[in-house]
Amino acid sequence: MILKRLRSTPVPGTRDSYTGVDFNLGFHVRHYDLDLTYRVDPNRLEGTATLRIENWRDLPGLTLDLQQNMVARRVVARGSAGINVKVAKFKQSGGKLRITFAEPIPVDTEFTLTIYYGGNPRPRRTTWGDIGWEELDNGSLVASQPNGAPTWFPCDDTPDEKASYKIRISADDPYVVISNGQLVDKQSGGSRTTWTYETPFQMASYLATIQVGEYIRIDLGRNTHAWVTPEHATEARVAFRDQQEMLDFYEGLFGDYPFSDYTVVVTDDELEIPLEAQGLSIFGVNHLEGWERLIAHELSHQWFGNSLGVAQWDDIWLNEGFACYCEWLWFEYTGTPVQINVDKEYEALQRKPQNIIVGAPGPKDMFDDRVYKRGAITLHALRVLLGDQAFFAAVRRYVGSGRHSVVEPVDLKRELYEAARSVSVEPSLIDDTLHAWLFLPELPECPQ
Ligand SMILES: [Zn+2]
Fold first, then answer.
1. What's the 316 CA to ligand 1 centre distance in angstroms?
2. Can you list the domains of the chain with their CATH numbers?
3. What is the pLDDT along the chain (448 residues), one digit of tens a residue?
4. What's the gap in Å between 111 CA and the centre of ligand 1?
5. Are 37 and 189 in contact (CB under 8 A)?
6. What angle do CA 197, 259, 317 make, to 5 degrees?
7. How big is the chain by its Cα radius of gyration, in Å?
8. How many angstroms separate the CA atoms of 271 and 379, rounded?
């Protein structure tokens, strides 16, 4: 698969202004092969990570993101086609694994780095709460948005760097391990089982996940299923009864489901919010009643956020505005006009401070509810401006051209301009709408 050229090429010496993490420069990880062993009770993770890398400048060394408590013990480099690459030294500091090569690796070399590491994985504490690998009462989960991936594997942890993955993990019986993509192999031996998952679809590191628990699988439809503890299987069947119909509904609007199938995991623990990963979503047992909107929301992230990834966190509204609007579209389909939700949330926004720039909210407010709701109403304003046919045709083209890639607002705008021209709407009105809703603090008029 050809990866669309990544556009947010960072300038040396700069860092992600949301996560505060320095960019890892000069190379791209094409593929991650993670070979993991996990012991649930001591919460011990041992790993061998092999990263297939190509570089677009001479590399005397490189950095990867890896939490300090996951200790790298050995790092081995192998060059392709007779190119000799060798690791001279490596060290861990400041959340980075810093690798120095014996000789600089010439530009455009394909090589692999194998990192042998291990530790007791734990979440990182951030402005947004605990992120990454987290122990449950019985098992563990991984929910990494935006920068939790280095809590369990060495990676280039920035949303615009997508790669394919193979994740093999061995865990104690009777635990089930769920990860991204297709289960391609399952081997039992002794008191352990090894699960191998593969995802050929490009994936951002924050969307890579591992779920460990005493789960059973229940089918929810043609290409969707849930993993849940036996005690909550009946409730889960009820809560997710419309999952297949939702999936079919979104396919009708946005084009084919981007991945092979859709999985939900319901943990026995309560979770503050459900969380999306690529090809799957994680819900807490507390979401089994009254949370239809979140079931729709998380599913829609498979198109908006996962297949179409953001290039930088400034654009988080492209994920959350669409996912929130998808909730309302589902309710429209089941009988509640979108306008009712728009009016309700507009009124709620009027009661909140109007001091957020939705199009670049900054780290503190990146998950603020106003990004979600105002982002969604922005889309409604565009729909009202263009009419249903032109608006949804534009969204379908946007989803199609950004599939398994990264997108920026300009990609959506391009399709909106075309839609405007097709219905004789002045394209500058697209700019005006986006500017007023996303880049000015005051609430514009409610779109009707
Ligand atoms: Zn969301």
1. 9
2. 1-121+147-198 (2.60.40.1730), 308-439 (1.10.390.10)
3. 344 445 446 677 788 989 999 999 899 999 999 999 999 999 999 999 999 999 988 999 999 999 999 999 999 999 987 788 999 999 999 999 999 999 999 988 999 999 999 999 999 999 999 999 999 999 999 999 999 999 999 999 999 999 999 999 999 999 999 999 999 999 999 999 999 999 999 999 999 999 999 999 999 999 999 999 999 999 999 999 999 999 999 999 999 999 999 999 999 999 999 999 999 999 999 999 999 999 999 999 999 999 999 999 999 999 999 999 999 999 999 999 999 999 999 999 999 999 999 999 999 999 999 999 999 999 999 999 999 999 999 999 999 999 999 999 999 999 999 999 999 999 999 999 999 999 999 999 999 9
4. 36
5. no
6. 115
7. 22
8. 29
Query: Distance between CA 218 and CA 261 in Å, rounded?
Result: 14
Cβ contact 352:373 at 8 Å: no
Q: Mind listing the pLDDT tens digit for each residue in 274-283? A: 999 999 999 9
Distance 437 CA to ligand 1 centre (A): 19
CA 26 – ligand 1 centroid, Å: 31
How far is it, in rounded angstroms, from Cα 207 to Cα 318? 16
3-state secondary structure the chain: CCCCCCCCCCCCCCECCCCCCECCCCEEEEEEEEEEEEECCCCEEEEEEEEEEEECCCEEEEEEECCCCCEEEEEEEEECCCCCCCEEEEEEECCEEEEEEEEEECCCCEEEEEEEEEECCCCEEECCEEEEEEEECCEEEEECCCCCHHHCCCECCCCCCEEEEEEEEEEECCCEEEECCEEEEEEEECCEEEEEEEEEEEEEHHHCCEEEECCEEEECCCCEEEEECHHHHHHHHHHCCCHHHHHHHHHHHHCCCCCCCEEEEEECCCCCCCEEECCEEEEEHHHCCCCHHHHHHHHHCCCECCCEEECCHHHHHHHHHHHHHHHHHHHHHCCCCHHHHHHHHHHHHHHCCCCCCCCCCCHHHCCCHHHHHHHHHHHHHHHHHHCHHHHHHHHHHHHHHCCCEEECHHHHHHHHHHHHHHCCCCCHHHHHHHHHHHHCCCCCCCCC
Give the number of other Cβ atoms within 10 Å of residue 127's Cβ: 13
Dist. CA 9 → ligand 1 center (Å): 26
Q: Model confidence over 126-140: pLDDT tens digits?
A: 999 999 999 999 999
Cα(369) to ligand 1 centroid in Å equals 10
